[in-house]
Specification:
The complex is a heterodimer of chains A (about 325) and B (about 675). Chain A has about 325 residues and is mainly beta. Chain A has one domain: Methylamine Dehydrogenase, Chain H. In chain A, about 5% of the residues lie in helices and about 50% in strands. In chain A, the strands form seven sheets. Chain A has a four-stranded antiparallel sheet with strand order 1-2-3-4. In chain A, strands 5-6-7-8 form a four-stranded antiparallel sheet. A four-stranded antiparallel sheet of chain A has the order 9-10-11-12, with no helix packed on it. In chain A, strand 10 and strand 11 form a beta hairpin. The termini of chain A are close together. By secondary structure, chain B is an alpha+beta fold. Chain B is about 50% helix and about 10% strand. Chain B contains 21 helices and eleven strands. Chain B has a five-stranded antiparallel sheet. Chain B has a four-stranded antiparallel sheet with strand order 1-2-3-4. In chain B, strand 8 and strand 9 form a beta hairpin. In chain B, helix 10 crosses helix 17 and helix 20 runs antiparallel to helix 21. The termini of chain B are far apart. The chains are: A mainly beta (about 325), B alpha+beta (about 675). Chains A and B meet through helix 1 of A and helix 20 of B. Chain B: InterPro entries: THO_Thoc5. Chain B: GO terms for molecular function: mRNA binding. Chain B: One of its GO terms (cellular component) is THO complex part of transcription export complex.
């Protein structure tokens, strides 16, 4: 990677290891880099400890999604999903455990995979991407058992509600669809852009981020980031954030979201924006919280820069890891 | 009694002695009264007693006389006594006389004895002197170093071995040291005579040979004009056969006076030109006589130059001296090399190499001569500027500072702070120039192997540089007329119809570039250097205006130009704020290898600009997809064929053109 390539790098996805000591990040060149958090957070950390311990090309196209199971790291490239054993990766071996492709209808252009989630109840992997469909794969057998069709444009984000075992998906067509994972049938469809409080026609209608917390749902994108109560299917608060949000999470009492604009927004459930913490990249694509490990409890954000900002205290940026 | 001496006088007694003696001499026999004889007889002690008695008698008589006179006595008794007194007086006188005569005798005897002692003493002294003298002589004799001891004689064994029997005479010399020495001296003399003979003979031979040499020399020098004539006559033959023998001889002759680094460069460049590159030629220019003057002891040449410059006013004396010292330090060798690199299209790159003697570095000046007239491109002004033409031929070789670390100390002495001030006058001291001359400053001394290993690469780079610059020159004149020259080999990279067009192409200064808002990320990444060239391209379509700031490294096309974009359409966006503009920057910066075109990749810049136009077309046409609720027709109708207009979390547009199908897809 020369300096020109680094200048034009974007980080699209992140995932922490099951032990919580490592961070994997995927970029637009199809590379996955492994960072050692314990080294970067230790008191005698140097410039070298902010560099990846392992950097390899995983896919042809950009790595838009990374997901960690208990043993493996799943990465999504151009239409394919590869699994890497965490133990092997830590030992710096870059051989994929397996690579699988969902079946696609179109053949002219390979659709990307934008989101992956795991259904812990029946150990299945749910992926959504450029072919407007949601594919569900059984993790043990590796067979793609079902396809959920309904979206009219590509899928940006996926979410899973554990209690009701429902899958939520948001897409470029502006609709948030809720599917029952047991029957694989659509349950609801919310067209967010039709609600006046949320809609921002000057941007568009696409939904690029989704998050759920029991009965609540966060969604945003072209329309403003808004908090919905799912039982009543109505927006309760709308957050006045200027850019389009790309990822949002619930954390304790706060809502943290990232998107266009070089900052992380902290918002309260009531609809107020509590703080906007500045970051290095000029716009952010991904936000990840390392809650598995109490020693390395950090938040990391990545976007259109080769640097990933690390927040040890969520109120300010501590340092940056760089590709 | 004699006839002469009638009266007997006591006082004449002495004279009588003499007279008697004289008479004795005359042979007259007389009986004389000799008191001196009497003296020997008489006893001094008795005389003394007589004296005392006489004095006493005299005194007594005087008393008597006195008594008598007092008593009024008769004169006869007085007379008697008077007479007795007179007798006594006579006795006293005699005694006195005798006393005197004894004294005199005693004195005479003493005197005689003294004389005798003196004589003996004198004799003793004489003898002593003689003894001392003899002793000295003996000493001198003993110390005598005869010259013979200074002569180195052969050792005794050798002597006995070599000398013939008449000289060595062993039967005598073995016993007698003196004879041995004599014999050895004889032998020495013999030997020396013999050797002297030999020497004379050798001298004579030498003279003869010397004469012979002289003769032969004259003969040879008489040949010289004949040879010259032959050489002159052969010149037309040489030209006809195209063997520039004469010319090479002349050059070799001049080359002898070149300083070592220039000589190495000459030889290596000449060799390379002969072996690999027919379009390279080397020649020497400059003043040969001055160079010859330099190699002689520099008393006169330096003296004259200093004296002429000292005729300045006294007020500026110290600064003039410093100036002189600086000039002296920066002095160039009078000879320089000129290397001409010809290219296929007829343009020539002239390189003039100079050697700075006191600093021990080489510098280079350039000149480009082209077959066609290169005018009309305003922005291309800097491209062929001789100051910057050879910048960064090898990465980070700016040629502004001297590569010889020792020069720092020399500069401090004469107050030169940077060599960069003198570069325009003296030429650029690039590192590759030093390497071509075999000068490497970690080890020192002119090394031929270093020059040879760099020659080929440097010549290729130089040619590449000239060709790149000339190509750019032509391209710039096109760009300034708003035409993007795309060659036929590169047509496949772009769709047939490109609506966005280049409207402006200008050059910028480094200052202007750094002040732009949308290039700060490039500056922070350290990708911009002082030696780079900066340009601004403006692409327009309808109401949209795209500005591209271009940073071009002097090593184009080995290092690709870097583009930074700013779009003015419904607001101001840049690559930092808009992910799609960043994707467009990636298209030209990151995927530059697709745009290189045929070797040597001189079309890179124009292809990059054309691609920007294509990407702007896609951007504007797909942007109208957003349902912004505005009425009326879209400003930019969709003409490009795209399968999907958005993909991925950042919803990027399809900028990749696929040939020959002609549609756009995502990377």
């Amino acid at each position: 990677m020369g300096p020109v390539e680094l200048l034009h790098m974007s980080v699209f996805s992140q995932s922490f290891s099951p032990c919580g000591r490592f961070l994997a990040a995927g970029n637009n060149y199809g590379e996955i880099a492994l960072f050692s958090l314990s080294a970067a957070l230790s008191p005698d950390a140097s410039e070298a400890s902010q560099k990846p311990i392992l950097n390899f090309t995983a896919h042809d196209g950009p790595v838009f999604s990374l997901l960690s199971t208990d043993t493996h790291l799943l990465s999504a490239g151009n239409g394919e999903i590869s699994a890497w054993s965490w133990a092997e990766l830590i030992k710096k071996s870059t051989k994929a455990a397996w690579t699988r492709k969902p079946s696609y209808e179109t053949s002219l252009e390979i659709p990307e995979i934008n989101a992956m989630i795991i259904n812990p109840k029946d150990n299945s992997l749910i992926v959504g991407g450029g072919d407007n469909n949601i594919h569900i794969m059984d993790m043990e057998t590796g067979i793609f058992k079902s396809v959920l069709k309904g979206h009219t444009d590509y899928i940006h984000c996926l979410c899973f509600k554990e209690r009701e075992e429902e899958i939520l998906s948001g897409g470029e067509d502006g609709a948030v669809r809720i599917w029952d994972s047991r029957t694989n049938r659509p349950v609801h469809c919310i067209e967010v852009f039709k609600y006046e409080e949320c809609a921002r026609p000057q941007f568009g209608k696409w939904i690029s981020c989704l998050a759920t917390d029991s009965d609540w749902m966060l969604c945003g994108g072209g329309p403003s980031l808004s908090l919905w109560h799912l039982r009543s299917m109505s927006p309760t608060s709308v957050f006045p954030l200027p850019g389009c949000q790309r990822e949002a999470v619930f954390h304790q009492d706060l809502i943290m979201s990232v998107g266009e604009g070089p900052y992380v927004s902290h918002c309260l459930h009531g609809g107020t924006v509590k703080a906007q913490i500045p970051c290095t990249p000029s716009s952010l694509n991904t936000l990840a919280l390392n809650l598995k490990n109490t020693e390395h409890r950090v938040m990391t954000v990545g976007g259109s820069s080769h640097q990933i900002d690390v927040f040890t205290n969520f109120s300010y940026r501590a340092f940056s890891l760089s590709f | 009694m004699t006839a002469e001496g009638s009266k007997i006088n006591i006082y004449q007694a002495n004279n009588m002695n003499k007279n008697c003696y004289l008479d004795n001499l005359r042979g007259i026999d007389v009986r004389v009264y000799n008191e001196e004889v009497e003296l020997e007889v008489r006893d001094p002690q008795q005389d003394y007693m007589l004296y005392k008695d006489t004095c006493a008698a005299l005194a007594k008589l005087m008393e008597e006389i006195q008594e008598l006179k007092a008593g009024g006595a008769k004169s006869v008794e007085i007379e008697e006594r008077r007479t007795q007194c007179s007798v006594h007086f006579i006795t006293l006188k005699k005694l006195n006389r005798l006393a005197h005569m004894r004294l005199k005798k005693g004195r005479d005897q003493t005197h005689e004895a003294k004389q005798r002692v003196d004589v003996l003493h004198l004799q003793l002294q004489n003898l002593l002197y003689e003894v001392m003298h003899l002793q000295k002589e003996i000493g001198k004799c003993l110390e005598f170093r005869s010259q013979h001891e200074e002569i180195e004689l052969v050792s005794e064994e050798e002597f006995f071995q070599e000398a013939p029997a008449e000289i060595s005479r062993p039967h005598v010399t073995r016993d007698d040291q003196h004879q041995l020495t004599l014999a050895r001296l004889d032998w020495e003399l013999e030997q020396r005579k013999r050797l002297a003979e030999q020497y004379k003979m050798s001298l004579a031979r030498k003279e003869k040979i010397q004469k012979a040499i002289e003769q032969k020399r004259e003969y040879l020098s008489s040949l010289q004009p004949g040879l010259q004539n032959i050489m002159q006559a052969s010149l037309p033959v040489q030209e006809y056969l195209a063997i520039p023998f004469e010319h090479m001889q002349k050059q070799a002759e001049v080359a002898r006076h070149l300083p070592p680094p220039l000589y190495v460069l000459l030889v290596q460049a000449g060799a390379y030109g002969q072996a690999c590159d027919k379009n390279l030629s080397v020649s020497i220019s400059g003043d040969v006589d001055e160079a010859k003057a330099l190699s002689r002891p520099p008393e006169d040449s330096q003296g004259t130059s200093v004296s002429t410059e000292h005729s300045q006013t006294l007020i500026f004396f110290s600064s003039v001296q410093l100036d002189d010292k600086r000039k002296e330090m920066l002095r160039r060798h009078p000879l320089s090399l000129c290397v001409d690199l010809k290219c296929k299209d007829g343009s020539v790159l002239h390189l003039f190499f100079y050697y700075l003697m006191n600093l021990n570095i080489l510098t280079v000046k350039t000149k480009v001569s082209t077959t066609t007239d290169l005018s009309g491109a305003v922005s291309a002004g800097e491209l062929l500027n001789s100051e910057s033409l050879l910048n960064c031929l090898y990465a980070s070789d700016h040629g502004k500072e001297t590569p010889n670390p020792a020069n720092r100390y020399q500069f401090d002495k004469v107050g030169i702070t940077t060599f960069g001030d003198y570069v325009s006058d003296l030429g650029h001291p690039f590192v590759w120039v030093q390497k071509l001359g075999g000068l490497q400053f970690s080890s020192g001394g002119a090394q031929v192997a270093l020059s040879a290993s760099h020659m080929e690469r440097t010549m290729k780079l130089l040619r590449g540089r000239l060709q790149a610059r000339l190509a750019l020159h032509k391209q710039f004149s096109s760009l300034e007329h708003s035409i993007i020259p795309v060659s036929s080999e590169c047509q496949h990279l772009f769709p047939a119809k490109v609506v966005s067009g280049l409207v402006r192409w200008t050059t910028m200064s480094c200052q202007e570039f750094t002040e732009l808002g949308f290039v700060q990320h490039v500056l922070k990444a350290g990708l911009v250097h002082e030696t780079d060239l900066f340009f601004m391209a403006t692409v327009e379509r309808g109401t949209a205006r795209l500005r591209a700031a271009v940073v071009m490294n002097p090593r184009y096309p080995d290092v690709a130009p870097l583009f930074s974009l700013s779009l003015h359409w419904k607001g101001e966006r840049s690559g930092r704020t808009d992910d799609n503009l960043q994707a467009m920057e990636s298209e030209v910066n990151v995927f530059r290898s697709e745009l290189q075109g045929p070797r040597p990749g001189l079309q890179l810049l124009t292809n990059q600009i054309q691609r920007l136009c294509v990407c702007l077309d896609v951007y504007l046409e797909t942007e109208s997809q957003v349902c912004d609720g505005s009425e009326g027709p879209k400003e930019f109708p969709r003409e490009k064929m795209c399968l999907r207009t958005a993909r991925g979390p950042s919803r990027l547009k399809p900028f990749k053109y696929n040939h020959p199908q002609g549609f756009f897809s995502h990377r």
